[in-house]
Amino acid sequence: MEFHEDRYRQAQRPKYDCLLFDLDDTLYPLSTGVATACRNNIEDYMVEKLGIERSIIPELGNLLYKNYGTTMAGLRAIGYDFDYDEYHSFVHGRLPYENIKPDPVLRSLLLNLPYRKIIFTNADKVHAAKALSRLGLEDCFEGIICFETLNPIHKSTVSDDEDDIEFVGLSTAQIPATTTTSSSEIFDIIAHFAQANPSSKLPKTPIVCKPSEAAIEKALEIAHINPQRTLFFEDSVRNIQAGKRVGLHTVLVGTSQRVKGADFALESIHNLREALPELWEADRKSEVGYPGKVAVETSVTA
Ligand SMILES: [Mg+2]
Known about the structure:
alpha/beta; six-stranded parallel β-sheet; 47% helix; globular; binds magnesium ion; HAD-like_sf; Pyr-5-nucltdase; Putative pyridoxal phosphatase; HAD_sf
């Protein structure tokens, strides 16, 4: 009896109702070279626009990315101020978008999946729109959660809010005057991690982005997404793990090796149907489960 009831319930209601997709290196592969070009552009921005010495860029960039989710978020945290739109147009403006090709296979997979489909990217909306349009997927999603969604107000000047007070206090206490003659307001994160036992806390960033759990929760709230009923597709292991912590079902994309925090792993997003047949099965079951009349109507509109 119970078995039948469960089956019935399952037929009435599929396991998921939303598919949440990262964009870069998830919906198109790393081999486009877009990610590498992006990293190079960020490094050029740090040298040309922020006056950072080229020789420390690899180490600095790595520390910022590791500790703040994006280099941009890290640069803001340690005290650099710049216009977000200018940063994005510098970093994304010269990307080899021509390497992103239309993907009719993925398009057909997406259009045949009867779930809400939403993009969740740390990138800005111009980049997201360009990449989706190159892929030919611009009409496959209900919406895009991007940089501007999570960071609607640009604080162009260092304000007097809590975080900044904490930062100012830290930097003056932590860094000896002799090492800060050129840029006394910049927190020296390289020196911070060079300490055997870093005694201070890292300054906070005003930027909201993955993999912060707060950023993911904010995104879910904005789009009215229930994590328990959502599959989250991502190429970044740390974003997958953060997604898992907030209750999402997770699909690591770009490798078939599952890691901790990933419920599924796909070498390519094209393997969706083989790796997750339940996404299509749920649809078939639910149609079978409906009374005849509804099933007929469904097939007419499909
Ligand atoms: Mg990605």
